[in-house]
Fold this sequence. Notes:
CATH class of the domain at 488-724: Alpha Beta
CATH topology of the domain at 488-724: Rossmann fold
CATH superfamily of the domain at 488-724: Alpha/Beta hydrolase fold, catalytic domain
Helix content: 10-25%
Amino acid sequence: MKRLAFSVFFLVFANLLFAQKEITLQDIWTDYKFIPKSVPGFASMPNSDYYSVKDKTAISKHAFKNGEKAGDILTQDMLAKASDGKLSLAKLNDYEFDVTCSKILLAFNLDYIYRRSTCANYYVFDLKNNKLMPVADTLKGKQSFAEFSPDGSKVAFVRDYNLFYVDLNTGAEYQVTVDGKENEVRNGFADWVYEEELSLSKCFYWSPDGKKLAYFRFDESAVKEFSMTMWGELYPEEYKYKYPKAGEDNSVVDIYVYDIAKKSSAKIDFPHEDCYYPRAFWLDNSADLMVMKLNRLQNKLEVFRCNVDSKKKEVVLTDENKWWIEEPDDYYFLSDNNSVIFTSERDGFNHIYRAEFGKTPVQLTKGSFMVKGIAAIDFEKQLVYYTSNESSVFNQDLYVIDFQGKNKKMLTNGSGWNNITFNSNAHFYLDNYSTANEPPVYSLHSADGKLLYTIEDNSAFKNTMKEYGFAKKEFFDFTTADGVKLNGWMLKPLNFKSDKKYPVLMYVYGGPGSQEVNNSYFRSGDFAWYQYVAQHGYIVVCVDGRGTAGRGDEFKKVIYKQMGKYEAIDQIAAANYLKTLGFVDPERVGIWGWSFGGYLSALSLFKGNGTFKMAMSVAPVTNWRYYDNIYTERFLQKPQDNPSGYDDNSPCFFAKDLQGSFLLVHGTGDDNVHFQNSMDLVTQLNKAGKQYEQFFYPNKNHFIYGGNTRLHLYTKLSEFLFRNL
C-alpha cells in the first residue's frame, strides 16, 4: 500500500516536473509569443552623455549616468501643430539629430529597396523655433540616405539616382549630379552587389568642415540585367535590375568631390581597373579623402590618401592575405591626420593594429583568439574598446586596451554574448547581453564596465519560456576522422530518456565566416520552432564545420577555391558521429537550412550516400555560377580561372545522387539567390528521374515573409519533417 502511494506521488510529481504548455506554430509565427523584448527607439545623442527614446507621445531625453528623463525633445503635439496634423510620431520610421541636437531629421513613409537601402519622405524639425520643413518637395519623389552636414546647415540626399543637397537656411535645393538613371548610372547610391556584399549603400560623404561632398558614381552600363517575373496582374510584370554574376563585368566606379562654394565637381584620378572601392573617409583636415581600393580577387587592400587640393594621391597602408580579406569595417583615422587604428587578419587571427601612414603597423592585440570588432575609440584618453572571443570561442566579451597595446582589461563577465553600443564620446555603453538559453538583458554601463542600471531584463519572457517548457541547448564537440575538432549544440526533448532512440534534425548555415554555435540567444523564431520540434520527440543539433568563424584563418579559409567541399564533409561527419550516440536513431537523421544553409543541406544530402534520411532546402544556391561576383569570387575566384571549384560542389551537378526525401522551397521574387537556382535544380532532378517535393512563394524575396507567409512556410516544413523523419 505504501509502495502504491509512493508510486502515485512520484507519477504526479513527474508530470508536474515535466509539465509544459504545447507550443503551436501560430504561437510562433502569428502571435509572436517567443520574441524577447528589445529596446526600441533607443539612440545615443551626438556629443553628449544623453540618449533619446521614442514612443507614440514623444522623443524624450535621458541621462546615461542614471537613466533619468531630462525632458521631452519633440512631442506629438509639437509635431502635429507644425505639420497641421499631417504627421504622427506613431508613424515615424527613423530620426537623427544634427551635431548640436538643435534639429531632428525625421523619416516617414519609409520603403525598403534592397537589404540596406531605403527611400522615405524626410523632414527637418528645428527645435529652436518649433518649425518643420520638408527636405524636398514630396511631389518630386522620396529621398534616400538623407544626412545632415557636419554643421547642421544642410541636408544631402539621393533622389532618382542623383545627388542633391538643400540649404536649410534658405530652403534652396541644389542638384549635384544630373546623369542618374535607373539601371544605367547611380550617383551617391551603391549598386546592388556593393550593397549586398560590401555593406555599402550610401556613397556620399560630407567633409568635416561641410564645404565638400565626396561621392561615388556607378556606371552600370556594362553590367548584365537580371529579370524577375512579378505575379498578380493580368499580364505579369518583369522587374529588371543589374546583377553581376560570378565572372561577369562590374559597374565602373568613379569618385568625385563636389565643392559647395564653386558648385562644381572634380574627379579623383583613379584609372578604371577591375577592382572595388569598399570604403571612403575624410580626415579631420577636410583636405584628404581616404579611399580604399580592393582588387577583384579581394586579397589585397590599399588605402589611398587623396588630397583634393593638390590632387596628390599616395598609398599609405596595404593589407594582404593569401586567401581573402574580409570587409574593411574597422578603420578609425586619428586626428593627427597621419595615422589609423584598424583590424586585420594578417597574423592568422583578427587583431587590432595602429599604423602611421607609410610605416609598419604596430600590433595592439595578439593571441589565438579573434577580435570581433572595434566598439569605440576614446581619442582623448587613447583607449580602444573592442569585442573578442578570448574567454571562449562561444562568447563575445568587451575589452579595453590603450594605443600602445597595454593595460588590457575585460569589462564584461566572460560568460555569454555581449553586443555593445557606445555613445558618441565613448563615455557610456548599452550592453545587449544573452546566453544560448537566456534571453537578452539590456543594461547601461559606464566606460569602465560599471553597471549603472538595467533597461530591460526580459523577466516576463523568461516566465514564458518556463511556462512552455523550453529545453536548454547543450554544447558539445567531437573529432572527425580527418582529425578536426568541431563544435555543436544539441537541444533534447524536455522529458529526454537516455535509453530511448530519437530522430535528429540537424540545422546548418555554415557560410564563410558565420557562427551558429555560440553562447547567445539569437534567431528567436527558429529557436522557438526547435522547441516545437523537440516537443514532438525530436533532437535538434547544429554543428559549425570548417569555414565558419571564431577559430582563425586556417580553420575558416581552408575552403578557399573549393567552397562546399569541406563544409559538406563536416556535416556528413557530424551526422555519422551522432549515429554513434546510444540515444540517436541512426536511421532517422535529417538536415535543413536556408540560403547558404539551403545549399549545404542539399549538397550534404546528395553527397552523403544515404547518410541523411531527408533534407529541407530553403532559398538555396544550387550553382555558384549563378550567384553574385563579389561574394562568390572572394572564396572561389572567377569561374574562368577555377571551373572545378564551381562545379565540384554545386548541388545541380549531383542531383542524380539524391537518396532520401527532399523538400525544395524558394521565393520567386528573390533578388539575392535567384529563383533560377531552384529551377535549374528541379530540371536536373527531373532529368535524373528523382522524386522530391517543391514549394514556391510568388513574389517573395530571400526572407520569405509578409502576411501569413512564415506560418505557411513553417507549417510546410513541419509537416514534411514529421512525415519523412
